[in-house]
Amino acid sequence: MSRKVPRTLGRSDGTARSRRARFQTESRWCFMMTALVAVWVALTLGLIVLLIYRGTLTMHEDDQLFLDSAEDHMQREQQELISKMNRLTPWVRVCGAGSAVLLGIIAGTYLFTHMTQ
Length: 117
Description:
The chain has helices at 15-59, 72-116. The protein is mainly alpha-helical. It has one domain (15-116). Helix 1 runs antiparallel to helix 2.
């Protein structure tokens, strides 16, 4: 009695191709998520640094100044602090919004990918 062994190397049903396509899709997804997470981390670290810097600026800001002509330098210092904070505010908003949007994209992509599998 001779038994025939089925050939497994030359499958024509496409399972090897589907595994390869799935691997390529997963590696592409992994690369994309890694890049998104790296950009999110960079934006979030930038936001943290800006918030710390803004906090140190506001520590030196006074709410109310009573100045006479001898303390004009204090008024100039306060105006410089206010101008620095006004220049810093748009960057804080951009980094905060970018961080929030990227976090939403990362979470949405992760959920969508794992819900469809």
